[in-house]
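DM from R.C. (forwarded with permission)

"hey, sorry to bug you on a friday — could you get me a structure for this? deadline for the figure draft is monday and I only need the backbone to look sensible"
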Amino acid sequence: MIHSLHAANSMHLLLIVLLLATTLLTSAKDLAAPRSQQGHGRVVPSMATLAGCQNSCGNITFMYPFGIGSGCFRSPDFELTCDSTTRPSKLLFRNGITQITESINIVSTYQFMGTDESLSIRFSDTISMRNASVVSWSLAPKLFEDSLDTSYLSLWGLRFSGCDFDVYWLNRTSINKETPNCTATCPKGESTGMVFPTQDCNGTGCCTIDFGAEINAYSSTIEFKFVRRAETNLESHHNRSLSWDKIYITDAFSVHTSIWKIADQPDCVSARKNQTSYACVSNKSICRNSSVDGYNCMCRNGYIGNPYILDGCSPDSGYNPLQRKMNCIRQYGNISVPFPFGMDEGCFARKEFYLNCTNAASSTLLLEDQYHVTNIYVDNGTLEYYVDMEKNPETSINNYEPGQQNLYVQVGTPIVSVQWVAAHLSCQHAKRNSSGYACISTGSECITIKPTGYRCKCAHGYQGNPYITNGCVDINECLQPNICPEMCNNTVGKYTCVSCPHKTEYDPVGRRCLPKRHNLLLGIVIGLSVGFGILLVCLSGVFLIRQWRNGIQKQLRKKYFQKNKGLLLEQLICSNEKPSENKIFSLEELQKATNNFDPARILGSGGHGIVYKGILSDQRVVAIKKPKVIKEGEINQFINEVAILSQINHRNIVKLHGCCLETEVPLLVYDFIPNGSLFGIIHANPSNEEYLSWGDCLRIATEAAGALHYLHSAASMSVFHRDVKSSNILLDGKYTAKVSDFGASRLIPIDQSHVITNIQGTFGYLDPEYYHTGQLNEKSDVYSFGVVLVELLLRKEPIFVDESGLNKNLSNYFLWEIKARPIREIVASQVLEEATEDEINTIASLAEECLRLQGDERPTMKEVEMTLHFLHSKINVVEQRNNERRPLQQPTRPPHRKAMTIDIGNKAILESSSCYNLERVYVIC
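My reply, with the result:
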């Protein structure tokens, strides 16, 4: 800037002195600059050497070769100053009148060159009119730095702000020099006090001179003269405002763009010859000639960074395709936040894609803390935003390119839309680094966006997010209307069109091929007829199948009925004196009674079959037993057994109501016994409410013995039960004994004493003699009943676990223990409390006789019954007499004496208080 002051006063001398001093200081600074800036033995600039340099002024940032302070800039052309007296601070070239208005971004790469060497600048100057009425001022090219390429900038006009002055353009030839080119006035003598008016400059407080096409600002010197208006009273306005004694000069169109360059050499060839001053010091940098003398540096293809410092160019490795955090928030209000963007650490691919959540209530997402994001699109790589101008008045929406590495390029207005890229690399270079390659989804492809970088998109036939694994999914193009003239076949990533077969036509509504319609009414009639015909055929088929199945079932039931000798059994049962009590049941009756043999109706299952609870049509509750499969040779025995049991009418034997012969295995219908078995009560948990007194136990044992005696001798043919045990002695509603389960029973003619058969029974109750010889006789049931008596005395199961954890046989344990110690030490505590010594000894002796190994030495069931009956009767007499039980005081086991036989018929004779007699009396004293 050159000032020409024509007022001859002391102020002129002072300004000249200051100008000379500034020139001397500048020259001294240039001489004292480090060798790295003078080109002689310089130190190559690097991150380390520039670590302490200032890189910002207010909200403007800059990079080397520009800098503030010694050693922080390349040459005086790149020296900057920071005016911190204004708000915000201003970044200026060293001449003090050229202001840099936007950040200087040096980051560049070869394939994206062209915009990184531009500068947004404005210039301004101030002229003092204090104590002067005329001042001259000129504008010359040297006011700008040598590093600016002036071919990219033309000055179209200047703006002059102040009060009450005229401006004359002295070296303008086309207009009368005596007429002012512009005039600025302040109405009523008041100052505007505005340096840069925002309204149109119409002569109030400022005026403008438009150069038009008459002159290029850099082709010659432009001279102006400022004259204070004659009517202005300087004394009256001396202290009113700075606008009265100063004129502010700015470029009329605010901001201009210029290209900067390295101007110490004319081109790259000359620059490389002088390596001491060569600016492209990065080992991955190259040189590019400027449009006018000079050159610029940029990073090689595939690298990005600052080529003016050592190791400044490096591959763009800032993108991380893997999301490190799980469960990232991807929806913020009505804004979708897809990867690579994110709101938390580990949720975004690079720091430039971080979005700050500032207000959840209003769904405010900020990019770089000032740009309000409204939409993010991954399919076309765009981002929409707006700027709150009240909070960020210095932000220019129209010129915004967010991101320090220019990952964003503006593509739309008035809703500002910027296109973003994953990294500053071409697709070719990005694919070389597989760990940092952004397009990781199957079905994705890479697109190079010049001059910025690359982005990803789903290939044709896919849609979704190409930046995540399996983010691109196949599009079913066939769902789109009218995509094919006829049939459409969707495939992965594409589709094919298929023509309808001959004599068919395409139905666009149902999207299928249908037969060609010749007559709608005829088609309806044919369709209804065919439909009714098919329905009739189906119903007829169902009916015939059911009839066929019913016929098969009837034939099968008839076959089973004949196989199971149903006619014979029917005649036997009908010959009964009370035929109404026994009958041959049909399968339908029993299926109805058991709800088609519902598993919920199962009462129990054992070795001989499954027992169901049923309710007959006459409301009788019965137990229906479904035995296991019997052999063909056993059918006759089964018939005899059913025939005999149907005629048995003993109060202590479960009554057989009849059977069903229409199944492969005949079903037996018994009377239902509600109170379970003797086993379940005597071996139940002590806390169980069910309880049998000692007298009840003897009564039940007496009733069971009487039933077995009846089976052995009272029937026309002897019946050997073969499975006598406490669980087969059932208890009805009055706790009366009912012997049950004749599945293992065998019929023996009266003239036979035994039968040889397969071994069958329950372990623990099984007669050892029968087990070894296979000969079944009535004494086998006596042995099993003896085990039941021992259960009543000891209240232990037939096979039990002793204190040492070993399994013990109850009968063996009993026979061994009564020889080793008194009986009172082995019987149950309940028995000790309720039974007398004589009763315990009698039952123990009877059980011992029943458990003898030789069957001939065991008593008959009649003898057992009489002994129990006598003992039970004696207990009843004592209870009626004393109304209390006599406890066992000093139990002693009577000596065993040899049995004596006395033939007294059926009359029982009491020989002594400790003796009794039967049909064959065993006298035990």
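R.C.: lifesaver. Residues 331-468 form one domain.
me: no worries. The two ends are 151 Å apart (CA to CA).
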